[in-house]
Amino acid sequence: MAGRNHLPPPNALKIREVSSTRAPYPSHHNHHALIEEDRYRHRSGPIPVSAGRYHPAVIDERIVIQHREIQTLLGDNQRLAATHVALKQELAAAQQEISHLSAAAASVKAERDAQVREVYERSLKMEAEVRSIDALNAELAQVRADVQKLSASRQELAAQLQTINTDLSVSRSELKEVQAVKDGIENMRKELQRGRAAIEYEKKTHSNNLEQSEAMGKNMMAMAHEVEKLRAELANAEKRARAAAAAAAAANPSPVVHAYAASYGNSDMGYGGSFYHDPYAMHQAHGGPDAGPQYGAGAVPLDLYDMQRPHAHR
């Protein structure tokens, strides 16, 4: 195809015509003359006149040979011209056919490209659908696995619910017992509050009694001091009475006066020692808030002690 589109140059015929004017190929008869001519032609310098003259027969024969070659070349030229024209026509037809074929090939290629593009797009769509189907299949398998897991979880939860219901019934029964225990605890709390109130009341009462006992102790100490003073005054009075009795006995020495002086001078006869014992010493030996009743054996008057008792037991 590349050789068909190659055109010969426009001066090809002229080149053929110029080449036809060359000397023809020498025949077998004048071979030696041509050799001699070539020998002189290749020498340096002009050909001598004697060497440039040929035999007339040789010249005629050469003219005949050249004429034949010219005729042959003319025939060849005509054939080549006809062939050239035919080739040009064939080339024009081939070019026209090539243009038609190119247009047809372009349309066929466009159709083929459109078909290929359509098939490719269909293949892409089918591949996308296949991928989506694969994804849906995987998702379906996952959903089935999840359904199985949920079924197992449902069974487990049902068992746990049954256990919880059982525990709930037990807890309800225990709750009733707990309610009874709470009621008992509430009653105990109330009793405890009442006990605390009683203890607080006892504490207050004890503190009040303690204060009253301390006040009574102070009063008893003051009374003991008064008793001591009275004892001292009584001892002084006894001493004065004894001195007076001794003086009277000395002035009147009669047995009656002596007996009276003897009886007056004896402290156990007129003033019992148990009546005037030391209550202050007993208070210090048995000191405390509860030592108040121990003063009853002393010289404290009973009416004063009876006045203090209601305050101590309030």
TrEMBL record:
Question: Which residues, by range, are in coiled-coil regions?
Answer: 77-167, 220-247
| Keyword Nucleotide-binding appears in the UniProt entry | no
Question: What keywords does the record list, in alphabetical order?
Answer: Coiled coil, Developmental protein, Differentiation, Flowering
Record lineage: Eukaryota, Viridiplantae, Streptophyta, Embryophyta, Tracheophyta
GO BP annotation list: cell differentiation; flower development
User: What is this protein's record name?
Assistant: Protein FLC EXPRESSOR
Q: Extract the InterPro entries matched here.
A: FLX/FLX-like
Q: Which family does it belong to?
A: Belongs to the FLX family.
Could you tell me which PANTHER family the record lists for this protein? PROTEIN FLC EXPRESSOR (PTHR33405:SF17), PROTEIN FLX-LIKE 2 (PTHR33405)
